[in-house]
Specification:
This protein is of the alpha/beta class and about 625 residues long. It has helices at about 1-15, 15-25, 35-60, 65-70, 150-155, 165-185, 195-205, 205-210, 215-220, 225-260, 260-265, 270-285, 290-295, 295-315, 320-340, 415-430, 470-485, 510-520, 570-580, 605-615, 620-625, and strands at about 85, 160, 165, 345-355, 360-365, 365-370, 375-380, 395, 410-415, 440-450, 460-465, 495-500, 525-530, 540-545, 545-550, 555, 560-565, 595-600, 630-635. It has 21 helices and 19 strands. The strands form five sheets. It has a seven-stranded mixed sheet with strand order 16-17-13-12-11-18-19, sandwiched between helices. The chain has a six-stranded antiparallel sheet with strand order 8-7-10-4-5-9. Helix 6 packs parallel to helix 10 (about 225-260). The structure holds flavin-adenine dinucleotide (FAD).
Length: about 625
């Protein structure tokens, strides 16, 4: 309390001079740093020490998970890079990808129908499962993502409390807010001490930069992809912008009252301060959801230019800010270097998938080095992409498994201007029809993100729920899991892919691939259930002689491949997965039960439905099956 009073008195008495000292470090010179400066330095160190200790604690708690990941032979936990050349041993045994390739323009005129999707108690078809011996020596250990004693808390915190936000995420943000508020008010009064808010703003910048890295060092340590942590980046950024504005308002008010604002702004350090503030406000304004959704390029370029202004402006405005700004510059530079290392120029074949209105991009020379669920940033060097189209990079989830014979595969759905041009380019290349002419040079950067340290093959059952173009996640995941299954490196007894599409006809090109995958599921059951949301009034051709009929579920090409109208019943799907995870009489019976993993990729609402259904499962059931973990991916932020 006495310290607080002392601070207030100093600030008031000095007419803000001490605050200038904190902000610029200059006027304090003759008398050394003011009490305010020292308290501000102490508090900013305290809050950062607290934040990084908490991060360190989480890293420590997750060490067993990292060890489990390393033992699972699932790739590198840090710095993954693409590899070219011959398919790696990961593609053994051969032919996973040599099933029928995507077929375009299939003919449709039949009436072949099958049974509908299972109800609550119905079991799935087991015809492809092999009951011969399954060597368990190479199976990955199952390590839950959080220590067992935290399980009840983890379950509770998974609950959705706001659209797109779990209780855990809200708890993280609220606690972060409290720490920042402590930093802002401890031994300080924002009405008399303008420098404090400025220091709080810059002291959080390294964390904000660390959370923004695509090849996130922090994410690698914590075991989360950068997209998973992006919500903290956005929130911390906004708090920092607020603090910078509080700092600025203090001086604008004071100098305006004194009638000296124009003279003050002629001091270089205050002019730099103004530049810093404008850059922060631009960063904030153009990162609002409206810009990210409606004009991504404006968001991107305002962020890039704003960051470039921040470095010199921060250093020139406040000497005390320099260590923080240097840390940001190092993090930014490192990210750029790692991204450059992770980039390659390759030749891609681009074809058009008319029914899905997608471009199918195949890069045969990039063979391995990624994990299912990771994405790349794609740049296409073609005049067909427009005057500046070559300068844009867009993220796409890799749709093939690492080591697959087709190399790296992407499905790019027409969503706006750039993807529209890519689809047009695919049509044009298709129309040339001459071998080798349908190729184009591309810049591929990645792999990024993905399920990080979650090892899907260490669970007893996996449910992959994908919406629309989220199928890319489902395809790469299924391929990877089937390769592991055949190499005796998987505990999975059951995999179900649930794909929600608007139109039943859009699935046609993928049916041969789906059938091929189901036929290759040797020691586990693979079931693929497609659900369409469009209300049919007449029959719609789907595949060869199969047609979708109003209000009727059908099977296509294989009993484990079903097409049903309406939204999926996740509760039934989960119950079925749990039943199969605990199921006896399979080749993997000796492996026991090691939980169910759910991977979701699609709109936020889809993730919310899945999380809700998992939340409704009784705790006793969850414990019996060894826990249920969810990994979510969304196409955007
Ligand atoms: C991690 C991730 C993985 C994705 N995987 C796939 C995939 O496998 N298949 C697929 O078809 N689509 C995928 N997308 C979506 C795809 O990136 C966008 O549809 C595409 O960038 C749209 O560009 P556009 O100019 O045609 O459309 P626009 O009209 O400019 O944008 C449409 C939407 O895409 C977002 N977007 C635009 N440009 C970018 C960008 N450079 N980076 C991030 N988001 C952008 C916008 O915010 C907007 O919401 C993925 C997105 C993300 C974030």
């Amino acid at each position: 309390m006495s310290s607080h009073n002392a601070t207030t008195t100093t600030a008031g008495g000095a007419g803000g001079g001490a605050s200038h000292g904190a902000a610029g470090g200059a006027p304090g010179g003759a008398h050394g740093p003011s009490l305010e400066d020292m308290l501000t330095a102490k508090v900013t160190i305290e809050i950062n020490a607290f934040i990084y200790c908490v991060i360190g604690l989480i890293v420590l708690l997750r060490v067993p998970h990292l060890v489990g990941f390393l033992k699972s032979n699932s790739g590198r936990p840090f710095l993954q890079v693409f590899r070219s050349g011959e398919p790696s041993s990961a593609s053994e045994p051969k032919n996973l990808n040599q099933g029928p390739k995507l077929r375009k323009g299939a003919s449709f005129d039949s009436t072949d129908k099958g049974s509908g999707p299972y109800g609550a108690g119905e079991t799935v078809v087991l015809d492809s499962i092999h009951l011969d011996a399954y060597s368990t020596t190479k199976c990955p250990p199952h390590v839950p993502s959080a220590p067992g004693f935290l399980d009840p808390l983890r379950r509770l915190l998974q609950t959705r409390v706001l659209p797109g936000y779990s209780a855990m995420q809200i708890a993280v943000l609220m606690n972060y807010t409290y720490v920042i508020l402590y930093g802002a008010f401890r031994w300080s009064n924002p009405f008399t001490d303008g420098a404090r808010a400025g220091m709080i703003a810059v002291s959080q910048m390294p964390l904000i930069f660390a959370l923004a890295q695509k090849s996130s060092i922090l994410g690698s340590l914590l075991g989360y992809g950068y997209e998973t942590l992006n919500y903290i980046h956005r929130y911390a950024g906004r708090l920092s912008v607020t603090a910078a504005n509080v700092h600025a308002i203090f001086y604008i008010y004071k100098w305006s009252n004194a009638g000296t604002i124009l003279q003050e702004l002629q001091h270089p350090k205050f002019a730099w301060g103004l530049a810093f503030l404008i850059a922060m406000d631009i960063l904030f304004f153009f990162s609002l959801e409206f810009w990210r959704r409606k004009a991504y390029n404006i968001f991107f370029w305002s962020h890039t230019i704003g960051i470039m202004v921040l470095f010199p402006a921060g250093c020139m405005h406040m000497p005390a800010a320099r260590p923080y700004m240097f840390a940001c510059a190092i993090l930014y530079g490192l990210d750029r270097i790692v991204r450059a290392v992770k980039s390659s120029i390759a030749t891609a074949t681009i074809t058009h998938l008319p029914r899905m209105d997608m471009a199918y991009v195949e890069v045969p020379n990039i063979r391995s080095g990624w994990r299912a669920g990771q994405h790349v940033r794609l740049r296409v060097f073609s005049s067909a992409m427009g005057a500046f189209g070559w300068a844009e990079t867009h993220p796409f989830t890799i749709a093939s498994a690492s080591g697959a014979n087709d190399g790296l595969v992407l499905f790019c759905k027409k969503a706006g201007d750039w993807t529209g041009k890519l689809v047009e380019l695919a049509k044009e290349l298709d129309s040339r029809g001459v071998e080798g002419q349908g190729t184009v040079k591309v810049w591929i950067e990645g792999p990024f993100g993905g399920p990080s340290r979650m090892v899907f093959s260490s669970f007893s059952a996996a449910v992959l729920v994908v919406g629309g173009s989220g199928i890319t996640f489902g395809l790469s995941m299924m391929e990877e899991l089937l390769v592991k299954d055949r190499r005796h490196e998987s505990r999975l007894k059951y995999i179900e892919l649930v794909w929600v599409v608007p139109d039943p006809a859009s699935v046609t090109p993928l049916v041969p691939l789906f059938t091929s995958l189901i036929q290759q599921s040797h020691y586990c059951i693979l079931r693929i259930s497609i659900h369409y949301t469009k209300a049919l009034t007449e029959k719609v051709p789907v595949y060869e002689r199969v047609e979708a009929e109003p209000c009727t579920s059908i099977t296509i090409d294989h009993p484990n491949l079903t097409l049903s109208p309406g939204r999926p019943r996740f509760k039934n799907i989960m119950n079925n997965a749990i039943g199969n995870a605990m199921g006896l009489g399979t080749a993997k019976e000796a492996l026991g039960v090691s939980g169910v993993v759910v991977g979701v990729c699609g709109p936020i609402s889809l993730g919310e439905q899945v999380v809700r259904s998992v939340g409704e499962i009784e705790s006793a059931t969850k414990s019996r099956v060894g826990g249920i973990e969810i990994h979510e991916e969304t196409f955007g932020w």
